[in-house]
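Q: Is it fine to ask for two folds in a single conversation?
A: Yes, each is treated on its own. Send the first.
Q: Here.
A: Result:
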Amino acid sequence: MPCNETCQCHRYKPAPTPSSPPPPPPAVEYKAMQAVSAILNPETVAAVNGATAEKIEEDRLEKKVVLFQSLAANGTLGYDQVTFQPHDKLKKQGKGGVVGYYGNLKPIPSLKFGSTLASIVQDNFIHTYGVLENDGALWLLSPIYMPVTGAVTIWGIIAGCNDSSGNGYIFWQDLAKRKGIAMRDVSKVDGKTSTIGGTGDSLDQTSIAACNDSEYRYLAFQTVSQELEDDVVVSEKRTVRVVRFNGSEVDIDDIPGSDEIVRGQHTKIAMVHAVDASKGINRIYVYFTNVDGRLSRSYTDIVSGQKISFKTAVTTENSITVAKHANLSVVAAKGKNIIYTVKSVDSEISYSDDKWTYSK
């Protein structure tokens, strides 16, 4: 006898077959990323007003570099502190080495993959900023965790510096509004965001570097220009540019030879202000990589009342080659700049000296 809707076998409708859960997102391999940000520890940099030459030299030898970095274990923030001249050996990542969290508790404030770090000094404390993986937003990571309201980046590439008054600024590419590179005043909780002139033709996903002297701020990045024929791109030029600014005053200089060095590829950039009054040195140095990761350098002398004018870029004398997954950072010492990065033949961060050129 055929069954019907009132029989026992139709009293209960069968439960629907559950759909398969979505696959988990792929694990981020932070071994394939190395963010690094080097900065002088302000507690070890003595004021030199009225000090003797011997005291100044003594203080210089005691300066320490704080080296912030992404941890390969989980993408969180780690740090190491070393003296230089002579330079201490850098610690390796892991317990007992670079200070940081190596566990896997959830949630972990991991950095956005491929992002960079930026360190500045405010109120005699180092403030380090980064972009987190979970929201793509800019955060203060040290000395406390705190979001920077309204600052969201696409790629997480940032830079930072101070101004002559000690206020801190963070820069990132403002791709959403297609206005160029944005600058946020982070010295105030409600600091304003503005756009830097001369950055409207910045290359998408450009590396950014920033520094300052006693009067100006400096920003280095890549530009892109295209030659079209019948709306078809027939050639493209990518140049490393430096913008010097103070308020509404903007000075722009493209580094000679940089387009031939980068050859249409993205480059990694670092920049530092170098001073030695006894030798008459007052310069801005810019470092950037070629297609093979080999490091080139250019600089401009800072002369009061004159525009910046960068020298034709040349390869560094020690032929540093930067690993593809690594960023780089630089600080100035006496007579040389010290570059922190992962070299192509290494797996850990190391340092290299690049001596200043004293001839004009």
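Q: Second one now.
A: Result:
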Amino acid sequence: MFKSKLLFFSVLVFLIVNTLYFWEGALGGFNMLLWPFLAIVVTVLFFGALRQLYFAAKEHFKNKQRLYKACLVLLLLALIALRPYGIINYSDFESKSVLIAGREGVANCTTTLMLKQNGRFKMRNICFGIDDEIGLYTINKDTIKFSNPSSRNTNRYDYAVLDSTKRNLIFKKGNKVVPPTILAVVHNETELR
């Protein structure tokens, strides 16, 4: 008989992949372990479904439940393969980005700051894992003040200042420059000048 565990784990992996947008930033460095684990699980599920199709063919497709479940598992795995970041692009539902600044560091590590039109910001650090920081911001002349951050970083910045060239943001805590130090402004539709 067809093992319902195969269908259960296929649905579970499908849900994990499709909700990853909401919680991948909370994993930090463990995010590096998630993708190889999911790849192994999907491979095992794929061969398990092929095995069930073989048994269904051997039985001359008399067991319809086995055939339907195996096809459903293969459909879910195909959707995962075609859309590895989920069927729905949740970032389309976010507010428009009015300022984007970023930099690339050593080992292809990137930091990106996005100021949204609705007064929220998102700082994403990708370096051997993903860390997201989300909060509110206000702009006063050439300064962006950050508040209510969702961060595990205790030595975080309080504000960022646009430098005299109007191309870089310098992050500060009090009078000290703190990481991410400087981000290059890529897109700016704000009153920050």
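Q: Anything structural to flag on that second result?
A: Two points. The chain has four helices and eight strands. The chain has two domains: 4-82, 94-188.
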